[in-house]
């Protein structure tokens, strides 16, 4: 597989990986080995970053779009993420509130669909006459 695909599966920022990782295809067996027994560089990247944007957004508790709206377009380190969380700029607080509302609405809709499904299933099971 391409190094970009392998990096995505490993949840790491490709430009921060070693050159030998970026410059050649990664086999599925190699990927499995990296996942099962990560080398030091991989453990360090996962702990300290820089992290890919999707993980930055998740660690900040916002969407990828919210990250862009906040002006964050590059990968961030764990220290930079922690600093943002400590400072809690207005844009981040607003994006976190928006994300919370989105999650609440998703749960409400999921519950509504589950209720309708249960209701249909109960209606299908007619009692014996």
From TrEMBL:
It holds the Pfam family DUF5997. It comes from the Bacteria. Residues 103-129 are annotated as: Disordered. InterPro entries: DUF5997. Residues 103-122 have a biased composition (Basic and acidic residues). This is DUF5997 family protein. It comes from Gordonia prachuapensis.
